[in-house]
C-alpha cells in the first residue's frame, strides 16, 4: 500500500495542528501550510518527521497551482486536503467596510475553492481522495459582530455539498466539520474577555463544556478514512450539542 499524503492548511496551531498531528500519527506524510515561517517550522518539528512545512500565503491565489504541483511532483499523489485556514474579525455590522468584508471572503472562501480545484486535478489522476472543509457555529445560527466570517463559513457548507456532487465522479469525497467552542488560546482569550458571551456559550451547550482540538481532529480523520467511504456532502457539528441547545 502506498504511503498516504495529506495537506492541512493553517496547520501550525489550534485545530489545524491537532489535525495535522492526527494524520502524522497515523502514518500520513502531512504538509502543513502556514503563513508564519517560525510557527510552521516549530509545529512540524514538534509533530515529527512526517510533518512537512510549507510557508505560503493562501491569499496569493495565482501561486496556489504551482505550490500544489510541487507537492504532487514530490509525492506522486495527494490523498487528503483539509481546508482549515481562515481569519475572523469582530466588528459592528454597520462599521464593516467593503475592503474588510472582501478580505475575509478572499481568505476563507476563494482560497478554499482555488486550492481544492488544484488538488482535485491531482486526485482525479490518482484514484480519488478526500477533502474536508472546516466550518463554524457561525454557519449554524446567528452570532453578532461577525458578518463576513458568517458569510464565508455558510458559503463553505454550501460549497461542500456542491463539490461533493461535482467530484464524486472522480472518486473524491467532500465533507465538512463545524466545530463548536473548542479549547484553544484564541477561544480562551475571546471568551475570558467577554463574560456574558462565555456564559451564553455554556448555557446553550447541553454537554456543559468546551471541546478539545483532538475532537475536531478525530472527526476530520473519520471523514478521510475508509469508515466513511459512503459519506459525502455532509456537515458534522462537533460541538457538545451547542448548535441544537436551547
What is this entry, summarized?
With 246 residues, the protein is an alpha/beta fold. It is built from eight helices and seven strands; from the N terminus they run E-H-E-H-E-H-E-H-E-H-E-H-H-H-E. The protein has a single domain, classed as Rossmann fold, CATH 3.40.50.
Descriptive tags:
246 residues, alpha/beta, seven-stranded parallel beta sheet, Rossmann fold, oxidoreductase activity
Can you give a write-up of this model?
With 246 residues, this protein is of the alpha/beta class. The chain has a single domain (5-180, 214-238), classed as NAD(P)-binding Rossmann-like Domain (Rossmann fold, 3-Layer(aba) Sandwich). 46% of the residues lie in helices and 15% in strands. The chain has eight helices and seven strands. It has a seven-stranded parallel beta sheet with strand order 3-2-1-4-5-6-7, with helices on both faces. Helix 1 (14-25) links the parallel strand 1 and strand 2 (29-34). Helix 1 (14-25) crosses helix 8 (213-224), helix 3 runs parallel beside helix 4 and helix 4 packs parallel to helix 5 (147-167). The longest helix is centred in the middle third of the chain and has 27 residues, at 98-124. The radius of gyration is 17 Å and the shape is globular. 45% of the residues are buried. It is an enzyme of class 1 (oxidoreductase). Pfam families: adh_short_C2. Its EC number is 1.-.-.-. Belongs to the short-chain dehydrogenases/reductases (SDR) family.
Amino acid at each position: 500500500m502506498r504511503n498516504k499524503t495529506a495537506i492541512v492548511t493553517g496547520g501550525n496551531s489550534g485545530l489545524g495542528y491537532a489535525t495535522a498531528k492526527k494524520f502524522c500519527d497515523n502514518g500520513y506524510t502531512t504538509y502543513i501550510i502556514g503563513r508564519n515561517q517560525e510557527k510552521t517550522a516549530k509545529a512540524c518539528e514538534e509533530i515529527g518527521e512526517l510533518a512537512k512545512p510549507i510557508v505560503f500565503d493562501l491569499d496569493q491565489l495565482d501561486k496556489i497551482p504551482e505550490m500544489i504541483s510541487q507537492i504532487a511532483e514530490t509525492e506522486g499523489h495527494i490523498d487528503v486536503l483539509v481546508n482549515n485556514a481562515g481569519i475572523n474579525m469582530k466588528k459592528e455590522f454597520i462599521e464593516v467596510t467593503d475592503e474588510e468584508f472582501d478580505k475575509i471572503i478572499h481568505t476563507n472562501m476563494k482560497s478554499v475553492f482555488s486550492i481544492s480545484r488544484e488538488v482535485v486535478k491531482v486526485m482525479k489522476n490518482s484514484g480519488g481522495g478526500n477533502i474536508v472543509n472546516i466550518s463554524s457555529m457561525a454557519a449554524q445560527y446567528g452570532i453578532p459582530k461577525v458578518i463576513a466570517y458568517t458569510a464565508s463559513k455558510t458559503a463553505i457548507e454550501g460549497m461542500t455539498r456542491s463539490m461533493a456532487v461535482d467530484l464524486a465522479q472522480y472518486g473524491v469525497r467532500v465533507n465538512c466539520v463545524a466545530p463548536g467552542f473548542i479549547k484553544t488560546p484564541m477561544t480562551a482569550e475571546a471568551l475570558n474577555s467577554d463574560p456574558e458571551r462565555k456564559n451564553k456559550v455554556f448555557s446553550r451547550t447541553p454537554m456543559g463544556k468546551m471541546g478539545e482540538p483532538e475532537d475536531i481532529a478525530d472527526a476530520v480523520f473519520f471523514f478521510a478514512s475508509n469508515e466513511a467511504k459512503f459519506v459525502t456532502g455532509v456537515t458534522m457539528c462537533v460541538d457538545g450539542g451547542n448548535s441544537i441547545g436551547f
